[in-house]
């Protein structure tokens, strides 16, 4: 069993930055694909970013490409989401997710992830 705990959310003005963290339990964290998803009120949960176990391959939704950066520290069992140039449309609850090895290869599909955090609220004021 893996537990994921997100932190770092909050209220920020448009154009500002936040860094989300997701701390994971479990000895095999380094073998998991890690993803970030978000869900705004009244909308479906959507993919934001993912990073493969080695950290060398990253994937982003078009809406955040160039503004958000996903990274991981396997020694700390933590994955990060650095969010810059935030916009009001980035307002959502952000969820961390983990996919067990072997990876499906479809990082965009929430159904492929095996574990989820409780979410952290990000609010961007315009």
Written overview of the protein:
By secondary structure, the protein is mainly beta. It is built from no helices and 11 strands. It has strands at residues 4-7, 10-13, 18-24, 33-39, 46-51, 58-60, 68-73, 78-83, 92-99, 115-116, 120-125. Strands 2, 4, 5, 6, 9, 10 and 11 form a 7-stranded mixed β-sheet that branches. Strand 7 and strand 8 (78-83) form a beta hairpin. The model has no long low-confidence stretch (mean pLDDT 94).
Task: Please provide a brief summary of the model.
Helix content is 0%, strand content 47%. It is an all-beta fold and 126 residues long.
Question: Which labels suit this protein?
Answer:
126 residues; mainly beta; 11 strands; 47% strand; globular
Map the helices and strands.
Elements (H helix, E strand, L loop, with lengths): L3 E4 L2 E4 L4 E7 L8 E7 L6 E6 L6 E3 L7 E6 L4 E6 L8 E8 L15 E2 L3 E6 L1
Parallel strand pairs: 2-11
Antiparallel strand pairs: 1-3, 3-8, 4-5, 4-9, 5-6, 7-8, 9-10, 9-11
The helix count comes to: 0
Largest sheet geometry: 7 strands, mixed
User: How many beta strands in the DSSP annotation?
Assistant: 11
Which spans of ≥5 residues are poorly predicted at pLDDT below 50? Answer: none
Order of helices and strands: EEEEEEEEEEE
The fraction of residues in strands falls at over 45%
Helix content: under 10%
- Mean residue pLDDT: 94
What's the Cα radius of gyration? 13 Å
Q: What class, by secondary structure content?
A: mainly beta
What is the general shape?
A: globular
CA-CA gap between termini:
40 Å
